[in-house]
Amino acid sequence: MFKAILSRIQTHTTPPPQNIPPFLHQLIVRFTGGTTPTGRLIRELGWKYRLFIIISLVANLFAAFSEGLTLALLTIALELLANGDSAITDISVGGDILQQVYESFGFNAVFIGLVIAAVLMQISRSWLDYLAQAAAAYLASWSEGELRRRLLTQYTNLSYTQISRFKLGNLTSYINEVDRSSILVNRINAFVSNLTITISYGLILLWLFWQMTAVVIVGMVFLTIALRRTRSKINTRSRAFMKAYVSINEQFVELLRGIRLIHTFGRQQHVQGLIRTQIDASVRSRRQALTLRFLIPAIIQTITIIGVALFLSVGYFIIQYTNNFDLVPRLATFVFVIYRMLPRVTGINATLGVISESLPFVMRVADQLDLTSQSTALSGEIELATFENEIRFEEVTLQYPNTANPALAGLSFTVKKGQMVAIVGPSGSGKSSVISLLARLYETTAGQIYVDNLPFKKLNRESWLGHIGLVDQDTFVFNDSILENIRFGRLDATQGEIIQAAKNAYADEFIQKFENKYDTIVGDHGNRLSGGQRQRLAIARALVRQPSILLLDEATSALDSQSEQLIQEALDQLRHEKTILVVAHRLSTIAKADHIIVLNNGQVTESGTHKELLAQKGTYHSMWQLQSG
Ligand code: ADP
Question: Most buried in the list 305, 324, 337, 490, measured by CB within 10 Å?
């Protein structure tokens, strides 16, 4: 049942109440990070996990109360020990009960009763501490998981245009920075615990000697204010460290992605030099932040020890002067309480230090999750059950963000069902951009694409993608088995269908040569496969989807002429079942296409069949002449 309640809390989200009084709302906003993304995130998670926050707060309060009570009981016990039964009548709170116990059971019973009560209070304090820490641990691990889930959703749902603009190392560093949120939650709990206990000690001290305590409190407040500057310095250094950390992460990821290039060009020293400077900067800011953080307890402890010595001296003189030895137990307790308070006050400042250190990281994650310009991949409502007729580009323009010229400029053409249409043209003419639009990686800037006369943007994304099989130069494969890599094309494909797709892509023959056949693990980035093998795997992955439309963007460019010939034959067989849009560099591979479009600067400059285009003696003719020698 306990587990059921926990999982309900974890998954169940009720929106925060809307009808709270404005002043209360403002107060809450003010003390939970304001209207910044971090503030919003804190309130959202805080509300979701409110039960555990309340448990932790209440447990901390009661723990502090138990601690205070323990000390009060011990002080009374000490006073009784020093002054005998006459002291019982002087006790202001609970004196009556003690008097009754004394009258019924005698002095020893009173003393032992006080000690037992103090012990019970300490035990309950330990368990209340545990309860508060356990609640904080739940909170910490859940908030960490929650942030990871949110990042995961964000990374996968953001539009390709947006996510592709981030550096990979930048994105991965967010995932690592999420740990800081759990450090933060645990530290905040430690802060609350230290603060409540310090307050309870403060009350005890007031009860013992209010004048001296007033001096202590003024001293503490003064000290905390004096240390504010140090904490703000820690914050600045931590932000510098965070920046360096992110940059190092970015560069490491970039380096590892280009490790082959680094080896083949012998650039090890060069890249080491580049990153080392960043590492040095990070070491500096980290060291400064940490040394400042550890400086705080040292300062506090020094000042407190001097304070204790002063109080002892003052107390000693007061006792000498007034000859009032009754004060000795109180003075002893006073010093004892201050001594116990010391680590707590140090703790408050130390936790504030850690909080200052972790906060920049959590703020960065919150900012990332709160990106105001977030655009998720667009999707329409129309489900395309079957592809019946044609794909039509009408005056389509595509301008990539931050570029001067459009990649496609008023492009119009039609692909009829069952046709094989080829797009050719010089590099940079916009061929891949046509494919990217159809794969919904980018949105048209102007003009419209129609599929069976339906506006492309209104089609449901998933339902459209279900109709297409895409093979491009990015033959990315996961470091998994060949079987699973092909299955990625259609998750419910049977083993038989996977093998058939591999056969159609002429991949089966090389797969059979591996010892583990379809269970062979392809290695990182598929490094156990040759370029041509990876390409055939990518073709099998597209074919297993049983798409009605095949989009091939230089899909056979990495193949040797023999494999290319085989793939060509396979595609010829598929021609009449499928609609094929193919971008090809080698014109020999598309000479048989029903229709060929020649692109230049994002516009159609020529179009027709191979024969017609040769007869036109234009760009296509000269490209053909060049390639056929
Ligand atoms: P092709 O496939 O014919 O070589 P592309 O469609 O890849 O041409 O590119 C057409 C133009 O668009 C080029 O000028 C290229 O630099 C630019 N381009 C392509 N992709 C992007 C992108 N993601 N961001 C900015 N510009 C791009």
Answer: 337
